[in-house]
């Protein structure tokens, strides 16, 4: 993990299952939509991706994605007119 | 495994208090010390030592209970940091990070700005960087070797009007402010001036902002000022203004994104508010109906789970949130639940992010009470029934409410959870200890 890349990856909701088959079911769990309400139109994960994961997403996967480098996931979502879908606190 | 325990005798704040004493006799709980780099790893297997501005994949529990917390998914790992100064190159003005306009710059330890003469262009030295959110900020620096009358700090954003403070270095050093900024200047015993500007940015002012140290602004320059001149700057610093209250050093040297001053700057784990969190295996609190949660935290946004004992969908759990849930979002809340929920939440809007606090949540199912203390003082308590039973044997989540958005957008300095009632003296000593690692008050 000493080699990693901070990036925000946004996928379409329709690709969530395929993306989780490739990258694991612990990513792309946070939904997003234009108004921040369900249903999710997209899923997002932002953080330190390993080099192997970046290689896989760039070269091998078949599902569409947008990839923004850095830690500013809010700006990445805003650039796509998306908001995180939040759920009741309790 | 008990690692690094010798570091935790807190002579300064707790009369040799060591949080390990809270777990004597096999008391269940956890203790995560984010200041102890050797207790953390970049990977969840625990093979790559932690480093500043790198992910945290595993953190050892120092309580002796082996309740280590991990994050197996690399992209969901939070980041270890001790960064406060947002400027990117503070002691090398010859670096490309500093952009000059209509003047020259030089210097590595003290930057010298030389104006070129009368011009219609604002003459300045500038650093471009991104501020994380709307907020109130403080920019400060030392000023020496001045051969002109006026120096100005200027901040131009993309939404709000510009902020500026112009310092007249004759006489008492008068200050004129623009855009609601508040400037201050003082003459130090060694002949340097300490200059600062505090200003508040609005929502959306989050990218491509400019901090500039201007020789004299065309707009405010007085007719009597010299048209050419120079001055030297040292120790430039830009940070949230409520992190410039004297509890931590007022200047942080920054060389690169991962090389900067750490002495005196509390180290923290940063959760990004999107999807990062840490989690333990099930922690067995089933032999106790009492729980105490201590957390040193800086919340950068409301919402988000600071500590979640698998609250949603389960009975006999507890939850510490970075917001209120009943009356006021700009607050905190602690929930303790046997078979019935009880809530402690101060109904006041004084905990508006960004803010640093030491939180203490106390839950007691059997003699029903739930209490929230903030910065060493009780702020809310309830004796409403919590039903029956002891706490459960469930995973603990940090930075997330069981993977449900919104996640915590904030910085964690210290977390201690103890599965028993504590004495008033123990609570006070632990809060003092946590604050020594947090610098909240």
Map the helices and strands.
The complex is a heterodimer of chains A (90) and B (441).
Chain A: E1 4-12, H1 16-23, E2 30-33, E3 42-50, H2 51-59, E4 65-69, H3 73-79, E5 83-84
Antiparallel strand pairs in A: 1-3, 1-4, 2-3, 2-5
Chain B: H1 11-14, E1 29-33, E2 40-41, E3 58-59, E4 69-70, E5 79-81, E6 98-101, E7 103-106, E8 111-115, E9 124-129, E10 136-144, E11 150-156, E12 163-168, E13 175-178, E14 182-187, E15 193-200, E16 209-214, E17 230-240, E18 254-256, E19 259-260, E20 268-272, E21 278-280, E22 283-284, E23 290-299, E24 305-308, E25 317-321, E26 333-337, E27 341-344, E28 355-364, E29 369-374, E30 377-382, E31 393-394, E32 397-398, E33 409-418, H2 424-438
Antiparallel strand pairs in B: 1-33, 2-3, 3-4, 4-21, 5-20, 6-9, 7-8, 8-17, 9-16, 10-15, 10-17, 11-12, 11-16, 12-13, 14-15, 18-19, 20-33, 21-32, 22-31, 23-28, 23-33, 24-25, 24-32, 25-26, 26-27, 28-29, 29-30
Describe this structure in words.
Chain A has 90 residues and is α+β, with helices and mostly antiparallel strands. Chain A is built from 3 helices and 5 strands, in the order βαββαβαβ. In chain A, strands 4-1-3-2-5 form a 5-stranded antiparallel sheet. In chain A, a hairpin with an 8-residue loop joins strand 2 (30-33) and strand 3. With 441 residues, chain B is mostly beta strands. Chain B is built from 2 helices and 33 strands. Chain B has helices spanning 11-14, 424-438, and strands at residues 29-33, 40-41, 58-59, 69-70, 79-81, 98-101, 103-106, 111-115, 124-129, 136-144, 150-156, 163-168, 175-178, 182-187, 193-200, 209-214, 230-240, 254-256, 259-260, 268-272, 278-280, 283-284, 290-299, 305-308, 317-321, 333-337, 341-344, 355-364, 369-374, 377-382, 393-394, 397-398, 409-418. Chain B starts with 10 loop residues before the first helix and ends with a helix. Mean pLDDT of chain B is 87; it is low at 1-14 and 217-227. The interface between A and B is medium-sized, with 30 and 37 residues.
């Amino acid at each position: 993990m000493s080699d990693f890349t901070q990036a925000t990856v946004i996928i379409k909701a329709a690709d969530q299952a395929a993306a989780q088959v490739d990258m694991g079911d612990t990513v792309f769990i946070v939904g997003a939509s234009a108004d921040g309400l369900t249903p999710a139109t997209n899923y997002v994960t932002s953080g330190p991706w390993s080099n192997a994961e970046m290689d896989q997403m760039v070269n091998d996967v078949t599902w569409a994605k947008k990839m923004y480098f850095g830690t500013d996931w809010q700006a990445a979502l805003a650039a796509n007119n998306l908001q995180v879908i939040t759920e009741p606190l309790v | 495994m008990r690692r690094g325990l010798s570091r935790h005798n807190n002579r300064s704040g707790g009369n040799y208090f060591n949080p390990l004493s809270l777990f004597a006799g096999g008391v269940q709980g956890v203790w995560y010390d984010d200041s102890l780099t050797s207790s953390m790893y970049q990977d969840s297997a625990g093979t790559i030592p932690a480093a500043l501005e790198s992910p945290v994949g595993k953190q050892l529990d120092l309580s002796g209970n082996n309740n280590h917390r991990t994050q197996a998914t690399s992209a969901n790992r939070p980041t270890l940091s001790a960064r406060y100064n947002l400027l990117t190159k503070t002691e090398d003005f010859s670096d490309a990070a500093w952009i000059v306009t209509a003047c020259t710059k030089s210097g590595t330890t003290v930057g010298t700005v030389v104006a070129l003469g009368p011009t219609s262009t604002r003459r300045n030295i500038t650093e471009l960087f991104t501020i994380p959110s709307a907020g109130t900020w403080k920019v400060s620096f030392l000023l020496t070797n001045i051969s002109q009358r006026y120096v100005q700090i200027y901040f131009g954003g993309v939404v709000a009007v510009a902020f500026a403070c112009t310092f007249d270095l004759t006489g008492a050093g008068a200050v004129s402010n623009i855009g609601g900024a508040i400037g201050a200047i003082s003459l130090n015993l060694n002949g340097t001036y300490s200059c600062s500007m505090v200003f508040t940015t609005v929502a959306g002012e989050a990218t491509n902002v400019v901090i500039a140290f201007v020789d004299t602004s065309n707009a405010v320059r007085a007719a009597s000022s010299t048209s050419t001149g120079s001055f030297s700057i040292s120790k430039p610093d830009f940070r949230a203004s409520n992190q410039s209250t004297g509890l931590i050093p007022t200047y942080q040297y920054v060389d690169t994104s991962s090389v900067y001053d750490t002495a005196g700057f509390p180290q923290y784990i940063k959760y990004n508010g999107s999807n990062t969190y840490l989690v333990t295996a099930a922690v067995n609190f089933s032999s106790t109906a009492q729980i105490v949660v201590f957390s040193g935290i800086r919340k950068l946004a409301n919402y988000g789970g600071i500590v979640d004992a698998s609250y949603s969908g389960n009975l006999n759990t507890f939850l510490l949130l970075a917001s209120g849930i009943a009356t006021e979002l700009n607050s905190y809340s602690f929930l303790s639940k046997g078979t019935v929920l009880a809530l402690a939440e101060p109904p006041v809007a004084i905990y508006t992010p960004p803010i640093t606090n030491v939180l203490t949540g106390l839950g007691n199912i059997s003699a029903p009470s739930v209490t929230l203390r903030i910065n060493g003082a009780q702020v809310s308590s309830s004796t409403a029934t919590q039903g029956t039973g002891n706490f459960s044997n469930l995973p603990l989540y940090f930075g997330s409410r069981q993977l449900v958005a919104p996640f915590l957008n904030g910085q964690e300095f210290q977390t201690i959870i103890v599965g028993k009632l504590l004495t008033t003296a123990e609570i006070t000593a632990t809060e003092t200890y946590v604050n020594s690692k947090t610098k909240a008050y």
